Automatic annotation (TrEMBL):
Residues 1-28 are annotated as: Disordered. This is Trehalose synthase. One of its GO terms (molecular function) is glycosyltransferase activity. Residues 444-618 form the Glycosyl transferase family domain.
Amino acid sequence: MTDQTHHDFQARSPRSQTQRLDRARNPAKLVNDRPQEIFFGVAAITRPDGKIEVGFCAHDGTYSMDFAMHCIEAKRDAAKTLSDFVIMRVKEYQNVRNVKCLGAGISKAAHDISPDLPARMWAELDIPTLEFERNPVEGDIITGEVDVDEEADAMARKCVVMYGPQKQPLLQVGFLNEVSVDAAGHAILCTLEQYRNTVRKTTWDATMHYAERLKKRGIRMAFLNATPQGGGVALMRHALVRLARLLGVEMKWYVPRPKNEVFRITKTNHNILQGVSEPDERLSDDQTEMIKNWIYSTAKREWVRKRGPLAKIEDGGAHILFVDDPQMPDIVPLAKEIEPNRPVLYRSHIQVRADLVDGAPDSPTAEVFNWLYSRIKEADLFIAHPVRDFVPKLVEPQKVAYLPATTDWLDGLNKELRFADSRYYLDIYNAHCLESSQPQLAFPARDYIVQIARFDPSKGIDTVIRSYGELRRKYYKDTPVHQTPQLCIAGHSSIDDPDASAMFDKTMDLIENEYPDLASDISVMRLGPIDQELNVLMSNAKICLQLSTREGFEVKVSEALHKGIPVIVTRAGGIPLQVEDGKSGFLVDTGDYGKVAEYMYELFTDKELYAEMSEYAAAHVSDEVSTVGNMLSWLYLADTMTREGGKKLETNGAWINDLAREGAGIPYEEGEPRLPRHYKT
């Protein structure tokens, strides 16, 4: 590749600052001098002689601060030549000037030349890259022509306005309350080939089998749930819609308008169904009416109109509906009233205490589930986490199907981060700790243990703290503090979770009252919506805990295993499905903090055991917990149930993934990792 530089970047960091930062770049210490945060604009055009003109613009969030223009010669592969050059120049700019690029705008012309460039920017440099069309008015009003440096400047400015106060692309909820994933499609994070490489060939081939069938038939799918951000449901839907866009299948996602008064009620219902609520909490008739009115206010205003998800199919409505939330049960009868033959599937994504529903008919749990089921009984399927004890006897057996929660190996929570980016997000975490008067992590000087979860009554956070207290007081009582591990408890917030603040306060009270001697080594944080912050906390942890007392599936366990982090988890809900006891982690009974401490000490002191467990964990994660595996199941259901005017599917407790593989004629191969079937708590 030949590079002719027309104009190079001029901005330089002061020599004294560069020298100081070079001295600070030491893997043995945590760098607290965070880089300046900037944005980039990139534009490119192919000249008549075949050479590529490339323009760069660096923007500080207020105004453009630097630019460069190059002309490169692409003798063979123009796409790779351009992407290699842009990656090289942006990486060099960040390293030399100690800056961190938060986002980049790229012109459509540059993306057309190098289709993989945005995905490479995300995967290799941790830069979300947003594509924009060029506006002719920005150049000559008559000709619409503009130089690449000017276009790069426009791309940077367009990128900046897509970001919010959290320094993340703004969440977009648009017309009809449709969640516009990835900044309304501007952000391009992944390619189809990258998704193909996250799973085994059998899983990919089965997924493509159904995708092609649905595309040919023009089937429209719609998901409906309560919130677009926070919690596992939203994370899965963002990834699923992202992949659907790449596959070319029509899949949309809708949420109602938020209402805090209702979220308080639905969160209480959530706790009641899990059996972790206060004894006197009940669901009243007034509250059920309030939930119904909340759902109907959005549905009848937005979703039943022409081309809305609940509209008749002939008016552009969805061919199949997935109601993905116990907060919205009234959608099911409304959808059936409008289009009786349209399949409506209900997904139950929490651990329902079926023992209380079946064995204590006067209990709050039975009351809430009976109310819930009276609304969803018309649904064609009841999809639950793959644990039989999550499904009360009231549910018709022929409608029961199992599907685990999933995660995305390419998103900010899971992708591999460069050393510099890892340092950046650890610095952000420690800065947040400083602002909140919480202890900072001393990594890499000290190891740490992590539990990443919402601050919820069912997450066993008290057991986490007691386990750490037992580890320090019993096993490390004579060890110098700087040679002991720290504890990190962190999680995102969800807009429909009003319990989080109360649980955070209870956590801090426990530490201050019972473990004041360890308080300086326990870092407890509620974090904003920066996925990479949780990623780096998980990736650098020595051990991951998930000590829930009640749990649906908690895919954080699989995320840790995928990174090769040994886990210690409770036998709660669907968690044990993900762990091979003694091979990829350890299983303990809920509340057994003594055993947790014993296993933690064993992992810290037995290096051979740790290495074996880490290697085994990373190699034995099932495709079923990935976005592609999740897509396979939903596409199978959409293809099967929309044929012949709405074919009834009797699942009788089958795993949807198994049905999908059988339907595609691609059975499981010997040795292919699978979650255990027929699990019962």
